[in-house]
């Protein structure tokens, strides 16, 4: 557990728990003052995630997934069993990835993962909630066919998974990836959210839509 922050007006809190050799940003977000929480993208190292939950003193009620790549879902089935909570997301277009978690993990020396299906697939226009926090779902394919973004209008905050990074964008050389589709998702779904929107991404430091609009070479080259 390396980062903790309070979002606007202390309505919510968040910690980032980097997991596995991929240093994937497993994220715990909770509402205040109820301390009801969601775990986003438990990619592995489930004991580490459970320890972070205990230290934070929150009650996890859901697991959300931004997409189906192994570094984001490797621990999802194990964490669901441990916490007895539902998994929501990603979009059903990533079903083929969730059907091959074991196979994908083996390629990277990751053991313990299980193939699974979420309790709820997510699509453009859906909403998900935890405590008093509600997030809109944006379907943003390109990195993977079923990638989704979670956006909270009130907090001006998004979790974008591997769609967008600080200074970069998600890789598109994996099966199902498309650079043109990814850039279209960013330009038509993320940039219109507004420059004041801050985001957590799947790896590395977060940023804001405005910062990326001005400085991200993958975006400025399209404008």
From TrEMBL:
<keyword id="KW-0378">Hydrolase</keyword>
<dbReference type="InterPro" id="IPR036866">
    <property type="entry name" value="RibonucZ/Hydroxyglut_hydro"/>
</dbReference>
<dbReference type="InterPro" id="IPR051453">
    <property type="entry name" value="MBL_Glyoxalase_II"/>
</dbReference>
<keyword id="KW-0479">Metal-binding</keyword>
<dbReference type="GO" id="GO:0046872">
    <property type="term" value="F:metal ion binding"/>
</dbReference>
<keyword id="KW-0862">Zinc</keyword>
<dbReference type="Pfam" id="PF00753">
    <property type="entry name" value="Lactamase_B"/>
</dbReference>
<dbReference type="InterPro" id="IPR001279">
    <property type="entry name" value="Metallo-B-lactamas"/>
</dbReference>
<feature type="domain" description="Metallo-beta-lactamase">
    <location>
        <begin position="23"/>
        <end position="203"/>
    </location>
</feature>
<dbReference type="GO" id="GO:0016787">
    <property type="term" value="F:hydrolase activity"/>
</dbReference>
<protein>
    <submittedName>
        <fullName>MBL fold metallo-hydrolase</fullName>
    </submittedName>
</protein>
């Amino acid at each position: 557990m390396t980062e903790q922050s309070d979002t606007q007006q202390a309505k919510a809190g968040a910690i980032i728990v980097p997991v596995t050799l991929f240093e994937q940003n497993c994220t715990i977000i909770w509402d205040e003052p109820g301390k009801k929480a969601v775990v986003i993208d438990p990619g592995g190292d489930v004991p580490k995630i459970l320890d972070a939950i205990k230290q934070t003193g929150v009650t996890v009620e859901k697991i959300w997934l931004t997409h189906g790549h192994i570094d984001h879902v490797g621990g999802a089935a194990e964490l669901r069993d441990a916490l007895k909570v539902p998994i929501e997301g990603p979009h059903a277009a990533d079903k083929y990835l969730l059907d091959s978690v074991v196979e994908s993990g083996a390629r990277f020396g990751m053991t313990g993962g299980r193939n699974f299906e979420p309790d709820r697939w997510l699509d453009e226009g859906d909403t998900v909630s935890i405590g008093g926090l509600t997030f809109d779902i944006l379907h943003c394919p390109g990195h993977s066919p079923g990638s989704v973004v979670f956006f909270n209008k009130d907090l001006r905050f998004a979790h974008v998974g591997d769609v967008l990074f600080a200074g970069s964008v998600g890789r598109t050389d994996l099966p199902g990836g498309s650079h043109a589709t990814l850039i279209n998702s960013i330009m038509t779904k993320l940039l219109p959210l507004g420059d004041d929107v801050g985001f957590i991404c799947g790896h590395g430091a977060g940023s804001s839509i405005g910062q990326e609009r001005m400085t991200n070479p993958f975006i400025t080259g399209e404008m």
